[in-house]
Design goal:
It is a multi-pass membrane protein. One of its GO terms (cellular component) is membrane. The protein is built from 16 helices and two strands. The protein is mainly α. It has a two-stranded antiparallel sheet with strand order 1-2. It is globular, with a radius of gyration of 23 Å.
Protein backbone atom coordinates (compact mmCIF):
# COMPACT_ATOMS: atom_id res chain seq x y z
CA UNK A 1 0.00 0.00 0.00
CA UNK A 2 1.36 3.46 -0.89
CA UNK A 3 1.96 6.14 1.69
CA UNK A 4 -0.84 8.19 0.13
CA UNK A 5 -3.28 5.33 0.38
CA UNK A 6 -2.21 4.61 3.92
CA UNK A 7 -2.72 8.23 4.88
CA UNK A 8 -6.16 8.25 3.32
CA UNK A 9 -7.19 4.86 4.71
CA UNK A 10 -9.01 2.08 2.89
CA UNK A 11 -11.36 3.31 0.21
CA UNK A 12 -9.36 6.46 -0.49
CA UNK A 13 -11.30 8.75 1.90
CA UNK A 14 -9.03 10.92 4.05
CA UNK A 15 -9.02 9.59 7.60
CA UNK A 16 -8.88 13.11 9.04
CA UNK A 17 -12.06 14.03 7.20
CA UNK A 18 -13.80 10.88 8.43
CA UNK A 19 -12.68 11.63 12.00
CA UNK A 20 -13.89 15.24 11.72
CA UNK A 21 -17.33 14.06 10.63
CA UNK A 22 -17.61 11.60 13.48
CA UNK A 23 -16.32 14.14 15.96
CA UNK A 24 -18.89 16.71 14.84
CA UNK A 25 -21.63 14.11 15.14
CA UNK A 26 -20.49 13.20 18.64
CA UNK A 27 -20.51 16.87 19.60
CA UNK A 28 -24.03 17.28 18.21
CA UNK A 29 -25.31 14.29 20.20
CA UNK A 30 -23.72 15.44 23.45
CA UNK A 31 -25.03 18.98 22.92
CA UNK A 32 -28.59 17.74 22.31
CA UNK A 33 -28.43 15.60 25.45
CA UNK A 34 -27.18 18.65 27.35
CA UNK A 35 -30.20 20.63 26.26
CA UNK A 36 -32.53 17.71 27.01
CA UNK A 37 -31.16 17.46 30.57
CA UNK A 38 -31.74 21.15 31.27
CA UNK A 39 -35.00 20.64 33.14
CA UNK A 40 -33.69 18.09 35.65
CA UNK A 41 -32.28 20.41 38.28
CA UNK A 42 -33.80 19.25 41.56
CA UNK A 43 -30.38 17.75 42.39
CA UNK A 44 -27.17 19.74 42.67
CA UNK A 45 -24.97 19.55 40.74
CA UNK A 46 -27.43 18.60 38.04
CA UNK A 47 -26.86 16.35 35.00
CA UNK A 48 -26.91 19.54 32.94
CA UNK A 49 -23.92 20.91 34.86
CA UNK A 50 -21.82 17.87 33.99
CA UNK A 51 -22.97 17.64 30.38
CA UNK A 52 -22.41 21.32 29.63
CA UNK A 53 -18.83 20.97 30.82
CA UNK A 54 -18.30 17.91 28.60
CA UNK A 55 -19.85 19.74 25.63
CA UNK A 56 -17.71 22.81 26.26
CA UNK A 57 -14.50 20.77 26.38
CA UNK A 58 -15.38 18.78 23.24
CA UNK A 59 -16.13 22.01 21.40
CA UNK A 60 -13.04 23.88 22.64
CA UNK A 61 -10.65 21.09 21.60
CA UNK A 62 -11.48 21.45 17.91
CA UNK A 63 -13.51 24.60 17.28
CA UNK A 64 -12.64 27.34 19.77
CA UNK A 65 -13.12 30.63 17.95
CA UNK A 66 -14.22 34.09 19.07
CA UNK A 67 -15.97 36.26 16.43
CA UNK A 68 -15.44 39.98 16.83
CA UNK A 69 -19.19 40.60 16.93
CA UNK A 70 -19.46 38.57 20.15
CA UNK A 71 -16.73 40.52 21.95
CA UNK A 72 -19.13 43.16 23.42
CA UNK A 73 -21.17 40.36 24.98
CA UNK A 74 -18.09 38.70 26.44
CA UNK A 75 -16.91 42.06 27.76
CA UNK A 76 -20.09 43.04 29.61
CA UNK A 77 -20.49 39.57 31.12
CA UNK A 78 -16.83 39.58 32.20
CA UNK A 79 -17.19 43.02 33.81
CA UNK A 80 -20.29 41.83 35.63
CA UNK A 81 -18.31 38.91 37.08
CA UNK A 82 -15.30 41.12 37.90
CA UNK A 83 -17.63 43.47 39.78
CA UNK A 84 -18.83 40.51 41.82
CA UNK A 85 -15.25 39.47 42.60
CA UNK A 86 -14.41 42.97 43.85
CA UNK A 87 -17.57 42.98 45.96
CA UNK A 88 -16.62 39.58 47.39
CA UNK A 89 -13.20 40.68 48.72
CA UNK A 90 -14.36 41.67 52.25
CA UNK A 91 -16.27 38.38 52.61
CA UNK A 92 -13.76 35.98 51.09
CA UNK A 93 -13.72 33.86 54.28
CA UNK A 94 -17.48 33.25 54.19
CA UNK A 95 -18.48 30.09 52.27
CA UNK A 96 -21.91 31.17 51.00
CA UNK A 97 -20.77 34.36 49.20
CA UNK A 98 -17.80 32.48 47.72
CA UNK A 99 -20.05 29.68 46.44
CA UNK A 100 -22.48 32.22 45.03
CA UNK A 101 -19.71 34.03 43.16
CA UNK A 102 -18.28 30.79 41.77
CA UNK A 103 -21.75 29.88 40.56
CA UNK A 104 -21.99 33.27 38.86
CA UNK A 105 -18.67 32.60 37.15
CA UNK A 106 -19.82 29.18 35.96
CA UNK A 107 -23.23 30.25 34.75
CA UNK A 108 -21.88 33.24 32.81
CA UNK A 109 -19.29 30.98 31.20
CA UNK A 110 -22.15 28.86 29.84
CA UNK A 111 -23.72 31.99 28.35
CA UNK A 112 -20.45 32.79 26.61
CA UNK A 113 -20.26 29.21 25.38
CA UNK A 114 -23.73 29.31 23.81
CA UNK A 115 -22.84 32.52 21.99
CA UNK A 116 -19.61 31.10 20.58
CA UNK A 117 -21.06 27.65 19.89
CA UNK A 118 -24.05 28.89 17.87
CA UNK A 119 -21.92 31.40 15.95
CA UNK A 120 -20.83 28.54 13.66
CA UNK A 121 -22.94 25.81 12.04
CA UNK A 122 -25.69 28.10 13.23
CA UNK A 123 -28.72 26.51 11.60
CA UNK A 124 -27.82 23.01 12.73
CA UNK A 125 -26.92 24.03 16.27
CA UNK A 126 -29.98 26.21 16.76
CA UNK A 127 -32.14 23.30 15.63
CA UNK A 128 -30.40 21.03 18.13
CA UNK A 129 -30.69 23.64 20.86
CA UNK A 130 -34.40 24.28 20.34
CA UNK A 131 -35.44 20.67 19.74
CA UNK A 132 -33.48 19.44 22.77
CA UNK A 133 -34.89 22.27 24.88
CA UNK A 134 -38.45 21.53 23.75
CA UNK A 135 -37.99 17.83 24.54
CA UNK A 136 -36.78 18.77 28.02
CA UNK A 137 -39.91 20.92 28.44
CA UNK A 138 -42.10 17.94 27.55
CA UNK A 139 -40.23 15.84 30.12
CA UNK A 140 -40.55 18.52 32.79
CA UNK A 141 -44.23 19.05 31.99
CA UNK A 142 -44.99 15.33 32.19
CA UNK A 143 -43.32 15.09 35.60
CA UNK A 144 -44.96 18.29 36.85
CA UNK A 145 -48.49 17.38 35.78
CA UNK A 146 -48.19 13.78 37.00
CA UNK A 147 -46.87 14.72 40.43
CA UNK A 148 -49.45 17.48 40.84
CA UNK A 149 -52.33 15.18 39.93
CA UNK A 150 -51.10 12.34 42.12
CA UNK A 151 -50.75 14.75 45.03
CA UNK A 152 -54.18 16.27 44.36
CA UNK A 153 -52.55 19.70 44.26
CA UNK A 154 -51.58 19.54 47.93
CA UNK A 155 -48.18 20.28 49.45
CA UNK A 156 -45.66 17.53 48.99
CA UNK A 157 -42.14 16.71 47.96
CA UNK A 158 -42.87 17.62 44.34
CA UNK A 159 -45.25 20.55 44.89
CA UNK A 160 -45.06 23.83 46.79
CA UNK A 161 -48.13 25.45 48.32
CA UNK A 162 -50.34 23.64 45.84
CA UNK A 163 -48.22 24.64 42.84
CA UNK A 164 -46.45 22.24 40.48
CA UNK A 165 -42.68 22.63 40.52
CA UNK A 166 -41.08 19.26 39.66
CA UNK A 167 -38.45 18.63 38.40
CA UNK A 168 -37.38 22.11 39.61
CA UNK A 169 -37.15 23.47 43.13
CA UNK A 170 -39.39 26.48 42.47
CA UNK A 171 -42.73 26.78 40.61
CA UNK A 172 -41.66 30.12 39.14
CA UNK A 173 -38.57 28.55 37.58
CA UNK A 174 -40.62 25.67 36.16
CA UNK A 175 -43.10 28.06 34.57
CA UNK A 176 -40.46 30.35 33.11
CA UNK A 177 -38.42 27.43 31.79
CA UNK A 178 -41.40 26.20 29.77
CA UNK A 179 -41.90 29.48 27.87
CA UNK A 180 -39.21 28.78 25.26
CA UNK A 181 -40.68 25.33 24.62
CA UNK A 182 -44.12 26.90 24.09
CA UNK A 183 -42.66 29.35 21.56
CA UNK A 184 -40.84 26.62 19.63
CA UNK A 185 -43.86 24.34 19.31
CA UNK A 186 -46.35 27.17 18.75
CA UNK A 187 -44.28 28.64 15.93
CA UNK A 188 -44.52 25.42 13.96
CA UNK A 189 -48.31 25.39 14.30
CA UNK A 190 -48.67 29.08 13.48
CA UNK A 191 -46.52 28.74 10.35
CA UNK A 192 -48.60 25.82 9.14
CA UNK A 193 -45.95 23.15 9.67
CA UNK A 194 -48.44 20.41 10.50
CA UNK A 195 -46.58 17.32 9.34
CA UNK A 196 -45.95 16.26 12.94
CA UNK A 197 -49.08 17.83 14.39
CA UNK A 198 -49.97 14.52 16.03
CA UNK A 199 -46.85 14.98 18.21
CA UNK A 200 -46.62 18.76 18.41
CA UNK A 201 -50.17 19.40 19.58
CA UNK A 202 -50.26 17.06 22.60
CA UNK A 203 -46.74 18.15 23.57
CA UNK A 204 -47.78 21.79 23.50
CA UNK A 205 -50.96 21.05 25.45
CA UNK A 206 -48.95 19.20 28.10
CA UNK A 207 -46.45 22.06 28.46
CA UNK A 208 -49.22 24.65 28.73
CA UNK A 209 -50.93 22.53 31.39
CA UNK A 210 -47.73 22.39 33.45
CA UNK A 211 -47.25 26.13 33.01
CA UNK A 212 -50.76 26.72 34.29
CA UNK A 213 -50.29 24.38 37.26
CA UNK A 214 -47.17 26.29 38.31
CA UNK A 215 -49.60 29.17 39.06
CA UNK A 216 -46.74 31.57 38.38
CA UNK A 217 -48.01 35.05 37.57
CA UNK A 218 -44.70 36.12 36.09
CA UNK A 219 -44.35 33.02 33.93
CA UNK A 220 -47.88 33.23 32.56
CA UNK A 221 -47.46 36.91 31.77
CA UNK A 222 -44.06 36.24 30.18
CA UNK A 223 -45.55 33.50 28.01
CA UNK A 224 -48.32 35.77 26.74
CA UNK A 225 -45.93 38.64 25.98
CA UNK A 226 -43.42 36.35 24.25
CA UNK A 227 -46.16 34.78 22.11
CA UNK A 228 -47.50 38.18 21.08
CA UNK A 229 -43.99 39.30 20.17
CA UNK A 230 -43.32 36.18 18.13
CA UNK A 231 -46.60 36.40 16.21
CA UNK A 232 -45.98 40.09 15.52
CA UNK A 233 -42.49 39.32 14.20
CA UNK A 234 -43.79 36.46 12.05
CA UNK A 235 -46.56 38.63 10.61
CA UNK A 236 -44.24 41.58 9.93
CA UNK A 237 -41.67 39.44 8.09
CA UNK A 238 -44.12 37.23 6.18
CA UNK A 239 -43.27 36.94 2.48
CA UNK A 240 -46.80 37.02 1.10
CA UNK A 241 -50.36 37.92 1.98
CA UNK A 242 -51.13 34.22 1.96
CA UNK A 243 -48.46 33.60 4.59
CA UNK A 244 -49.93 36.40 6.73
CA UNK A 245 -53.33 34.73 6.54
CA UNK A 246 -51.75 31.41 7.54
CA UNK A 247 -50.03 33.07 10.50
CA UNK A 248 -53.20 34.73 11.69
CA UNK A 249 -55.21 31.52 11.26
CA UNK A 250 -52.58 29.58 13.19
CA UNK A 251 -52.49 32.21 15.93
CA UNK A 252 -56.28 32.15 16.26
CA UNK A 253 -56.26 28.35 16.42
CA UNK A 254 -53.62 28.45 19.15
CA UNK A 255 -55.60 31.02 21.17
CA UNK A 256 -58.77 28.95 20.85
CA UNK A 257 -56.94 25.82 21.97
CA UNK A 258 -55.35 27.58 24.94
CA UNK A 259 -58.64 29.28 25.81
CA UNK A 260 -60.53 25.99 25.77
CA UNK A 261 -57.93 24.40 28.03
CA UNK A 262 -58.06 27.35 30.42
CA UNK A 263 -61.84 27.26 30.55
CA UNK A 264 -61.78 23.54 31.30
CA UNK A 265 -59.27 24.03 34.12
CA UNK A 266 -61.21 26.93 35.65
CA UNK A 267 -64.39 24.87 35.66
CA UNK A 268 -62.93 23.06 38.68
CA UNK A 269 -63.88 25.11 41.76
CA UNK A 270 -60.69 24.58 43.76
CA UNK A 271 -58.47 25.31 40.76
CA UNK A 272 -60.44 28.44 39.86
CA UNK A 273 -60.26 29.80 43.41
CA UNK A 274 -56.52 29.20 43.68
CA UNK A 275 -55.89 30.65 40.21
CA UNK A 276 -57.59 33.97 40.98
CA UNK A 277 -55.90 34.09 44.37
CA UNK A 278 -52.50 33.76 42.66
CA UNK A 279 -53.53 36.19 39.90
CA UNK A 280 -53.80 39.06 42.38
CA UNK A 281 -51.39 41.83 41.40
CA UNK A 282 -49.84 41.98 44.84
CA UNK A 283 -49.69 39.73 47.88
CA UNK A 284 -48.87 40.41 51.51
CA UNK A 285 -45.17 39.79 50.97
CA UNK A 286 -45.11 42.41 48.20
CA UNK A 287 -46.70 45.27 50.10
CA UNK A 288 -45.51 47.77 52.68
CA UNK A 289 -42.10 49.33 53.39
CA UNK A 290 -40.68 45.95 54.42
CA UNK A 291 -42.24 44.03 51.53
CA UNK A 292 -40.44 43.01 48.36
CA UNK A 293 -40.98 46.28 46.51
CA UNK A 294 -40.57 48.44 49.59
CA UNK A 295 -37.19 46.87 50.28
CA UNK A 296 -36.06 47.54 46.74
CA UNK A 297 -36.96 51.21 47.06
CA UNK A 298 -35.18 51.49 50.42
CA UNK A 299 -32.11 49.78 48.96
CA UNK A 300 -31.57 52.31 46.16
CA UNK A 301 -30.14 55.15 48.35
CA UNK A 302 -27.88 52.63 50.09
CA UNK A 303 -26.55 51.29 46.80
CA UNK A 304 -25.90 54.82 45.52
CA UNK A 305 -23.52 55.28 48.45
CA UNK A 306 -21.69 51.96 47.92
CA UNK A 307 -19.74 51.70 44.64
CA UNK A 308 -18.70 48.17 45.62
CA UNK A 309 -22.23 47.11 46.50
CA UNK A 310 -23.27 45.22 49.61
CA UNK A 311 -21.44 42.03 48.69
CA UNK A 312 -22.78 38.71 47.35
CA UNK A 313 -25.82 37.53 49.35
CA UNK A 314 -25.51 40.47 51.77
CA UNK A 315 -28.78 42.10 50.70
CA UNK A 316 -30.77 39.44 52.53
CA UNK A 317 -28.90 40.14 55.75
CA UNK A 318 -30.06 43.76 55.65
CA UNK A 319 -33.66 43.27 54.49
CA UNK A 320 -34.41 39.66 55.54
CA UNK A 321 -35.38 38.94 51.92
CA UNK A 322 -33.55 38.39 48.66
CA UNK A 323 -33.71 41.33 46.22
CA UNK A 324 -36.26 39.66 43.91
CA UNK A 325 -34.93 41.88 41.16
CA UNK A 326 -31.91 41.03 39.05
CA UNK A 327 -31.29 44.72 38.40
CA UNK A 328 -31.17 45.57 42.10
CA UNK A 329 -29.16 42.44 42.79
CA UNK A 330 -26.63 43.32 40.07
CA UNK A 331 -25.74 46.49 42.00
CA UNK A 332 -26.08 44.88 45.44
CA UNK A 333 -23.94 41.80 44.72
CA UNK A 334 -21.67 43.11 41.95
CA UNK A 335 -21.30 46.81 42.71
CA UNK A 336 -21.59 49.67 40.26
CA UNK A 337 -19.32 47.93 37.77
CA UNK A 338 -21.46 44.80 37.71
CA UNK A 339 -24.75 46.68 37.83
CA UNK A 340 -24.03 48.95 34.89
CA UNK A 341 -22.52 46.02 32.96
CA UNK A 342 -25.71 44.02 33.48
CA UNK A 343 -27.82 46.92 32.22
CA UNK A 344 -25.51 47.35 29.22
CA UNK A 345 -25.92 43.67 28.41
CA UNK A 346 -29.72 44.00 28.52
CA UNK A 347 -29.73 47.11 26.30
CA UNK A 348 -27.31 45.69 23.71
CA UNK A 349 -29.10 42.33 23.52
CA UNK A 350 -32.50 43.99 23.17
CA UNK A 351 -31.26 46.16 20.30
CA UNK A 352 -29.72 43.21 18.48
CA UNK A 353 -32.73 40.99 19.11
CA UNK A 354 -35.27 43.37 17.60
CA UNK A 355 -33.04 43.87 14.57
CA UNK A 356 -32.63 40.11 14.11
CA UNK A 357 -36.37 39.53 14.32
CA UNK A 358 -37.39 42.34 11.94
CA UNK A 359 -34.79 41.95 9.17
CA UNK A 360 -34.26 39.04 6.81
CA UNK A 361 -31.42 36.57 7.25
CA UNK A 362 -31.15 32.77 7.26
CA UNK A 363 -31.76 32.45 11.01
CA UNK A 364 -34.66 34.89 11.31
CA UNK A 365 -37.24 32.27 12.34
CA UNK A 366 -35.02 30.89 15.11
CA UNK A 367 -34.30 34.44 16.27
CA UNK A 368 -38.05 35.01 16.51
CA UNK A 369 -38.10 32.28 19.16
CA UNK A 370 -34.94 32.87 21.19
CA UNK A 371 -35.16 36.66 21.38
CA UNK A 372 -38.76 36.91 22.69
CA UNK A 373 -37.81 34.25 25.26
CA UNK A 374 -34.78 36.32 26.27
CA UNK A 375 -36.68 39.60 26.30
CA UNK A 376 -39.33 38.33 28.72
CA UNK A 377 -36.51 37.10 30.97
CA UNK A 378 -35.31 40.71 31.02
CA UNK A 379 -38.81 41.81 32.02
CA UNK A 380 -39.08 39.15 34.71
CA UNK A 381 -35.75 40.36 36.04
CA UNK A 382 -37.55 43.39 37.45
CA UNK A 383 -39.56 41.24 39.88
CA UNK A 384 -37.50 38.06 40.37
CA UNK A 385 -33.86 37.00 40.45
CA UNK A 386 -33.09 35.47 37.05
CA UNK A 387 -29.31 35.93 37.01
CA UNK A 388 -28.62 32.35 38.16
CA UNK A 389 -31.23 30.69 35.93
CA UNK A 390 -29.51 28.26 33.55
CA UNK A 391 -32.13 28.68 30.81
CA UNK A 392 -31.64 32.45 30.76
CA UNK A 393 -28.10 32.03 29.47
CA UNK A 394 -29.16 29.51 26.81
CA UNK A 395 -31.34 31.93 24.86
CA UNK A 396 -29.21 34.95 25.78
CA UNK A 397 -26.10 33.36 24.29
CA UNK A 398 -28.06 32.16 21.24
CA UNK A 399 -29.08 35.74 20.42
CA UNK A 400 -25.42 36.73 20.24
CA UNK A 401 -24.51 33.60 18.29
CA UNK A 402 -27.14 34.50 15.70
CA UNK A 403 -25.71 38.01 15.53
CA UNK A 404 -22.24 36.66 14.77
CA UNK A 405 -23.64 34.43 12.03
CA UNK A 406 -25.74 37.29 10.63
CA UNK A 407 -22.74 39.61 10.48
CA UNK A 408 -20.70 36.95 8.69
CA UNK A 409 -23.56 36.36 6.26
CA UNK A 410 -23.79 40.09 5.49
CA UNK A 411 -20.02 40.31 4.95
CA UNK A 412 -20.17 37.41 2.46
CA UNK A 413 -23.17 38.77 0.56
CA UNK A 414 -21.20 40.83 -2.02
CA UNK A 415 -19.24 37.73 -2.99
CA UNK A 416 -22.46 35.70 -3.28
CA UNK A 417 -24.04 38.40 -5.44
CA UNK A 418 -20.99 38.51 -7.69
CA UNK A 419 -21.07 34.74 -8.18
CA UNK A 420 -24.76 34.78 -9.04
CA UNK A 421 -24.43 37.71 -11.47
Amino acid sequence: MSETAAAQGFGGAPSARRFTFEYAKLLDVVFWLTMFSGSVVFIEPSPYDFLILITLVLWAIREFYVPRSVLPFLLVLSLWVVGGLFSLIPYWNEPDPVTYTYHTLFITATGMFFALFTARRTSRRLDLLLSGYAASCVLAAAIAVTTWVLGYGEDGEWTLSGRAMAPFKDPNVLGSYLVTGVLYLAQGIILGRWRYLWLTLPSLALILTALFLSFSRGSMGACVIALVMMVAFLFWTADTARMRRTIMAGAVAFVLMAGAGLAAALSIDSVREFFFQRAAVQHDYDEGPTGRFGNQIRAIPMLLERPNGMGPLRYRLTFDLDPHSSYVNAFASNGWLGGFSFIAMVVLTTFLGFRQCLTRHPWMRQAQIVFPATFVFFLQGFQIDIDHWRMFYVTLGAVWGIEAARRRWLADRPARDARSA
